[in-house]
Automatic annotation (TrEMBL):
Keywords: Hydrolase. Signal peptide: none annotated. SUPFAM superfamilies: alpha/beta-Hydrolases, Galactose-binding domain-like. It comes from freshwater metagenome. This is Unannotated protein. GO terms for molecular function: dipeptidyl-peptidase activity.
Amino acid sequence: MVPMRDGTRLSTDVYLTEASSAPVILVRTCYDKASWLTFLPLVAEYVNARGYALVAQDVRGKGRSEGTSAPFFSEIDDGYDTLEWVSRQNWCEGKIAMFGDSYFAYTAWAALASGHPSIGAMVSRGIATDIAREVVYRDGTFLYATNAFWAPFWLDNYLYDVVPPLDWSARPLSEVIGHWLPGRRSDFFEAVRNAPPGDPFWEQPCFSRVRDVDVSIPVLHVGGWWEDFHRGQLADWRRARAAGHARQYLLMDATDHFDAQLAPDEAPLADFRETEEGIRDYLPRYLDPALAFLDSELRHLPVPRPPAVRVEVAEAGWWEGEQWPPPGSERMRLHLASVPAAVRDADGGALTHDEPDASESVTWEHDPQDLVPSLDEVPFRDLLGTLPDESLVEARPDVLTFTSEPVDRPLDLVGPVHVCLRVSAEAPLMHIAVKLIDVFPNGRARRIADAALTQRTPSGPTTLALADVAYRVRSGHRLRLEVAASCFPRYLPVIDPETDSWNATTGPRVGYTLQSSPGEASFIDLTVASGLSYGE
């Protein structure tokens, strides 16, 4: 047990190498350092064999640690105190590497924000430092399913369920946890749902100091293209790289938050965490890039330096370079056309390179009693098994679709995606959700990326940032854009535009209109490249 400055003791496991001292990797997790979810004992065995000691710690109020459970608030000071303890041990060779995935990547950033001088490098996967704008909200829209799933974990020190059986039909939406556990409330969930970005809540040091930290050490930024927070993670990489204080590395693959891989040709994949053998088989993919980075940047061994950027372009292969997007990439704009046909069937309207030569519009109705389902069964685990077939919702009359012609050669999407819509609602508050889809020759529709925006009904265009993608649209496949007024439970919907949607049990149907006309077009901007060389 390692004491913190207030006397609280945190449960800490130390895994040493056979050497008298070694470089140390520090992991601070809220998910039980001995659990199947973190599999840190197996991680320790693997990194010990590569010459690294591992220190694994349960954060305050979780696992076997003392204290009260409250996410984020104590991690800066506790990170500093733990680093101070580790750095004074005779088995600590010198500089310490922070390592983390998801929340324990946040604790790594919090340790960096503490200013302790012992940190020499960091590996961060699956988190963004701007918790308000990229983890709890996105473009002002509450990430409902993500946070509703995560919040029960912080009800107290002991309750833990990685897949809580939440009832998404429960109303009001604020009571989703209470319907599962009558009489229980998550202080974290209650606090963040009432604190949109810009609220003073997010200026508390545990958020602002981490968000604004000056990155002065080498960092390996690891993420997945179907990972929930990769937009913010790429923003962190770009910000740290622009500061220029230390080398920043980017590693992105075709995975989700739990690091499940995109299934080839939609073949269902099993969860590697189900068996020890599966975890051991997974460890090289999980740890080898991190250890290669640490060998170079922490230990300064005479080994090849990792590429500055290494990304997996889904359905194509691995690309390496010095920047992202790749050199020579360019914008490709596709306009929404045949707009009135958008509600006709799954194919709907068209996506075309041609600008509109006449004004077109389409109307549809948002019914808060019949929300458009987001189809994902479990947040964070988009790729476990296989991605859902979006065609299951695309034939709904409240889902607009715009589909391109089949591509006659592979089309590589490699960078940011933005959608600009001329859309309005017959209400003061509106919600727009969009998805970029790969349509297979057999009609199956796979989500590449998505975004949502909740705002006061505008008089001008509405722009949504879908974040970066790395995806090959294969020959014979088509691109599709979905537009709807809800995507639930992935995003918090507008139940009643005149009141608080959190506490409304019902609301009115609302008409929406999408338009495209010369000089005021609706379109999607993609980043594309040709001639890229891929490896394995």
